[in-house]
Structures are given as structure tokens and as C-alpha cells.
Specification:
The strands form four sheets. This protein has a two-stranded parallel ribbon. Helix 4 crosses helix 9, helix 5 packs antiparallel against helix 8 and helix 8 packs antiparallel against helix 9. With 348 residues, the protein is mainly α. It starts with a helix and ends with a strand. The chain has a single domain, classed as Di-copper center containing domain from catechol oxidase (di-copper center containing domain from catechol oxidase, Orthogonal Bundle). The radius of gyration is 19 Å and the shape is globular.
């Protein structure tokens, strides 16, 4: 970013914070409305699916010499997530960083691919007992595709029970979807992979796992999340759930319940389910914030390093967040209220 851009950033941010699209103040009537996938009409689902295919067919903006695995506009988002993985997970940046990441994705779908709707979400408890039978993953033409072909030897987290797939997705609109980077299943959780952006085309793999979703994405877990008395407890439940064990929270478990590509901490963005999952995580945060706006719109906890590493500074409202070439620098304070500034959306 040029120095001139940085100098102008406070002015730009201040101007954007006073208005939404077309210069209107953000209100319940003017806000974008995000809906659960199952409540969308078949036509609305197909429109979203078409927009995803559009991003997968559009050339990237990232330089291929620097990012050899980036071959599509969708890959721009995968590479960005890989690049910042060590700063945006299991810490104080998880929620605000992904809130803006979703906004950038939603904007790309609408402005670059003609999508007329808004980013849908996946309400985890709605299908936690039957992933493969749900409109999200039933493999129909209006789903996000179904399970992968059964593969006993597929790479997975051995601390979790085996799912029902593991191989290439064999049904639905993304059965021919190509993942161009990763996988990073064996990459250490605190070290950047040497081949992070290498070109490695492979199929979209899934390993649907109801045994995982049934105990950590249940109604009891989401109820406990919304009942959290403070942001520290809220984040602990996100990461550790009701059992208090790492990765048993609804965030990690939703990734693991879809499995394979979605279970890849670094490259999960390549699975079409990623943004629906993170949009629901954002929805949970938004609902929790609404219960005590005076306190929770400024409530933060944790550092800006993975696992709240003490080597990184504690987050504050003035902590900057970077998104590579996808967006300008944003500050946490700009992401604390979905009905303010550049955001202007609500959940239905």
C-alpha cells in the first residue's frame, strides 16, 4: 500500500462509517439480509451456486509468479486465508477478521458475478443429526454437493471418528470442482508451510461425519454459546465447546463434520461450505452482541497470534487487519457492529 493511501485511510474510513450503499444510513430496512440455506428457494440456491462457479471460472487478481497455485478468482480468497492463517485463528482476530472476509466475498459475488442475493448461512443444529440428508449436503443440484466417495485411507484427524466419505465428491454441482492449493493436513499449527502457494490441483474431497456434528454442533452447544456471560467464555466455547477440549467447539467441529478440504485449517476456503459455516459463526457473534450492545460491541479478548500466542500483541479496537490484495487495511473497531459502516447487514 502506498504511503498516500495510508494517510487517507482515516478519512476514507470516517466517510464510509457514516453511510451504507448509495449514501443511505444503515437501517433495518436498508440492511442486506442474510438467510439460512434451507430457507432459500431452489432458484435462490441455484443463483448462489452459479455465482460460485463464476468465481471459479474468473481469472485471479493475484500474481501467479508469487502465488503459483492461484488460478481463479476463488483462489485469491484461498491464498489470502492461507497467508494469514497464523494470525486469524484461535485468537482475538478470528471473529472480526472473518466478518470482513465474508463481506469481501459477498461483494465479489454480487459485483463481479451478478449475484442478486446475499451470503447465506448454515445453521449447524438444523442438520447436525443428518448432514447427508439435509438441503446443504444431500448432493442434489440445489445443494452444496454431497459426501465424498468412501475412502478408508483418506487423510484425516485421527483423534476423530471416521466419516462416511473421504474421497472425491461424487454428487451435486461441485463434483467437478478443483482445489488448486493444499492439502496441509500434516502442517504444524504454528508454522507456515514451505509450499503454501504451490500449484497442486486435486478434487474436492468430503468426509461427512454426523458423529462429530451431533455432539458439538447441537442445539445445546449453540444455546451455551449465546448464554456466555463474557467474550472470553464465548470464545472458549467456540474453540472447546461444552467438553472443554481443543477443537470440540462448534467452529472446529463444523469444519471437521464436513471433513477433508473443510477440515484443512489453511485451505478450507476451497470448499463451498466454508463461507456458509463462517457466516453462521458470525451470526452467533452478532446475536450475542445484540443482547448487551453497550458492553459487547467493544468486547475483545486475546492476541493477534494463533492460539493467543503471547509473542503477539493483545487485540484492541485499534488493531489493524490486513487482507492482502482483496481489501484495504481495516480496523477491528470497524467490524464490531454489523449494522454500521461498510457492513450494513442483518440475519433472518
Amino acid at each position: 500500500m502506498r504511503l498516500l493511501d495510508i494517510a487517507l485511510l482515516p478519512l476514507i474510513t470516517a466517510l464510509w462509517a457514516t453511510c451504507s450503499v448509495a449514501g443511505q444510513q444503515c437501517t433495518r430496512e436498508t440492511a442486506n439480509v442474510r438467510k439460512e440455506w434451507a430457507t432459500l428457494t431452489p432458484t435462490e440456491r441455484l443463483d448462489y451456486i452459479d455465482a460460485l462457479h463464476c468465481l471459479a471460472d474468473t481469472p485471479p487478481t493475484y500474481d501467479q509468479a508469487t502465488y503459483p497455485g492461484v488460478r481463479t478468482r476463488w483462489d485469491d480468497f484461498v491464498a489470502t486465508h492461507i497467508n494469514y492463517t497464523l494470525n486469524i485463528h484461535f485468537n482475538g482476530l478470528l471473529l472480526p477478521w472473518h466478518r470482513n472476509f465474508i463481506r469481501i466475498w459477498e461483494t465479489a459475488l454480487r459485483e463481479e458475478c451478478g449475484y442478486k442475493g446475499y451470503q447465506p448461512y448454515w445453521d449447524w443444529p438444523s442438520n447436525s443429526l443428518d448432514l447427508a440428508g439435509s438441503p446443504h449436503f444431500d448432493g442434489s443440484e440445489t445443494s452444496l454437493s454431497g459426501d465424498g466417495e468412501y475412502d478408508e485411507s483418506a487423510e484425516r484427524d485421527l483423534s476423530l471418528p471416521k466419516g462416511t466419505g473421504g474421497g472425491c465428491v461424487i454428487s451435486g454441482p461441485f463434483q467437478n470442482h478443483t482445489v488448486n492449493m493444499g492439502p496441509f493436513y500434516d502442517a504444524p499449527g504454528n508454522k507456515f508451510p514451505d509450499d503454501a502457494f504451490a500449484y497442486n490441483p486435486h478434487c474436492l474431497r468430503r468426509d461427512l461425519n454426523t458423529r462429530v456434528s451431533s455432539y458439538c454442533n447441537s442445539p445445546d452447544v449453540t444455546a451455551a454459546l449465546l448464554a456466555a456471560p463474557n467474550i472470553t467464555t464465548f470464545q472458549t466455547i467456540i474453540d472447546k465447546g461444552l467438553l472443554g477440549v481443543h477443537l470440540n467447539g462448534p467452529h472446529g467441529c463444523a469444519h471437521a463434520s464436513v471433513g477433508s478440504v473443510m477440515g484443512d485449517l489453511w485451505a478450507a476456503v476451497a470448499d463451498p461450505a466454508f463461507f456458509l459455516h463462517h457466516t453462521n459463526l458470525d451470526r452467533m457473534w452478532a446475536l450475542w452482541q445484540e443482547m448487551d450492545e453497550g458492553t459487547r460491541r467493544v468486547a475483545l479478548n486475546g492476541s493477534s497470534g494463533i492460539y493467543n500466542s503471547p509473542d503477539w500483541p493483545e487485540v484492541t479496537l485499534d488493531t489493524p487487519m490486513v487482507f492482502g490484495e482483496l481489501d484495504e487495511v481495516r480496523y477491528i473497531r470497524d467490524m464490531m457492529d454489523p449494522m454500521d459502516g461498510v457492513l450494513c447487514y442483518r440475519y433472518e
